[in-house]
Amino acid sequence: MRKKIILPILAIILFGAAGFTTAVKSDFFEIAKQLEIFTSLYKELNMNYVDQVTPAALMDNAIKGVLENLDPYTVYWNEQAVEDARIKNSGVYTGVGASIRYNNKRLTVLEVFKDYPADVAGLQAGDAIISVGGVDVKTYENDPRDLLKGAAGSSVKVTYRRQGEVEKTTIQRGAVEIKAVPFYTLIGEDIGYIVLRKFNKKTTIQTRNALEDLKLQGAKKIILDLRGNPGGLLNEAISVVNLFVPKGEVITTTRSVIKKYNKVYKTRSEPVDVSIPLAVLVNGRSASASEIVSGGLQDLDRAVIVGARSFGKGLVQRPKNLTYGSQLKITISRYYTPSGRCIQALDYWNRDKNGDPVRLKPKEYSAFKTRGGRTVYDGGGILPDIELSSANFSPITNALLKDNAIFEYATQYRYSNPLERWEDFSFTGKDFQNFRVFLKTSGFDFETQTELAFKEALRRAEDDNLEIENSYTLLMTEIDKAKQEKIINKKDEIVSLLKAEILKQYFYSEGLYEYQVINNPEIMAAIKILNNEREYKKILK
Fold first, then answer.
1. Is 299 known to be catalytic?
2. Which of 218, 253, 409, 532 is 20 to 30 A off residue 95, Cα-Cα?
3. What is the per-residue pLDDT across 343-353, written as a single tens digit (0 to 9) for each?
4. Using CB atoms within 10 A of its CB, is residue 363 exposed (0-12), middle (13-18) or buried (19+)?
């Protein structure tokens, strides 16, 4: 017997997705009309479609359809996704202690955390997990990463493939701490270095502890590393800025068409140190809460920002409870820095002819003033005071990351090059050449917008019976040469990511941080500016 739809539940879900609580006052009839149309359509599909359909699957697709033309941060969370978000923000979870990617029915270990269950059991980055607890990953209908979850102390058998060989191990699950500050150290005699990777409920206390400990060790200057930090809890971002600025400072404001979401966020506590020289590192993967911190410190002339323009995620989300433990994470407002800059880079409500969100061009940026009168610009993200090519994420680099080419080359490198100490690591010109060869043999192909346009032109030419295939082939050959040159031109940023991934696979994140403190160009630039008091003050003047 087919499952029957429960109309009240459907109404609750769709009213939530449509923003019912705010729109109902003026659009009640239109909402009721559209809901009635949808419920009748849903019922007829469920009862009459030629093949067996699953009501839950139909509903999931319907919800995705409602949300797909909004911004990518407004999403529906089922009960499991709600729990995952809670765990992520808490800073502690029970599991195996590894970062694992699930894509195309493949489960791949990206990183194991030092001394946690997966590491103890012998798993390594690059291992392809075949089965978990006897369940075949390829045939499992849901996300097989869920099979690795379980109570602390429980065990699970895992079969995996490594370098073509099938191996087995047993992992005993345990508590795993998601460290907001995974590393900090004293560089030289007086520069404290703090890596801040997440904004969860432990971020402020861990950052404060690191700052106070470094000051006790003799730190008279601080580097706060926000590179790759995707953001998290807004209140934690405000509190981190509060460590360096006085109580009562405006750090960010949120604005919305809904008045109750228009808020001003100020620092609420006494700071740790309002005068210690401060450099903040950001890159294209520093987003959201990271941009609130870096933008606030920049606008208040409290820190020199070093690296590359940040991601530009300036949209505020809030979870709204639905039925059966599910939630709608919905964008409610935009962030603005103390000077009034909008952090958001992409305009999802205005799209180009290809359906892509509009991004402002540099000539369209608006100028703003910091507290001290320095000129800063909007345009999405935070533009550093000191820009470095090694911190950039160009389209070719993003394509390499998306295709997992950097990760896969690093795995191949690790199995081909024995290395006992990070101090002995060097990435040579020959290694970069080997990487380029790897890209060709692995089938990596970065398709440019130019190629897409020419492909469309070829298709149209064929429709018009125009013979341009030879010319098209010559053009594609030239474009391929240009793409190879692009990889060479972006060598600095690509090599920086290759080094990071390789070192992490050999020596965990801890070894990577130890290496970067001595060798990373962005950290070196931060050290240089902090050690040049005159130049530091000149930038902030």
1. yes
2. 409
3. 999 999 888 87
4. exposed
